[in-house]
Amino acid sequence: MIKLGQLTDSEIIERCRKGEVRYQERLYKRFYSYAMGVSLRYAINREDALEIVNDAFIKIFDKLHSFDSQRPFKPWLRQIIINQTIDKKRRLLKAECELPIDEITEPVWENADAISLLGYKDILQMLNTLPEIQSLVFNMYEIDGYAHEEIAQMLDISTSSSRVYLSRAKEKLRKLIEELNTEGYGRAV
Asked: Which part of the chain is the RNA polymerase sigma factor 70 region 4 type domain (predicted)?
């Protein structure tokens, strides 16, 4: 008898495709931490992140038949989590107005040392202080590598709005880092 821990991702996925519930549970447990890591970047709090992950796995089990088993599972999972987040927030984003853009300026990071001293939790806390749209655009562009055109299409906003949201997010993050630096964060570490 094969132990569940000895099965490869492909073997577990194949058993999930056959509707075997215990393998669905195993797939969920195997990728839960990764999924939560992605989701926490986008969610406001842990409860929202968990809801996104659970909704994403429901969608995964429903669409697993369309997954190409010749490709890695993690990128597919990541994309579903991001899409799930966007779907959840899309209603809120449509209510926000389009921003006019004259010129975008990139902030200059003078305190690179302060940035290197920040931990994962510090960065998540800073991202959570941003307005949702700015945090979403920042994550999609800076962390997940989407182009402004892709972000605009997925969020149903203009490309220029995507650039403005990113610029404003970076500016707010820069100010937060400067505040930490002047409060002695760098000296305390």
From this structure: 122-173
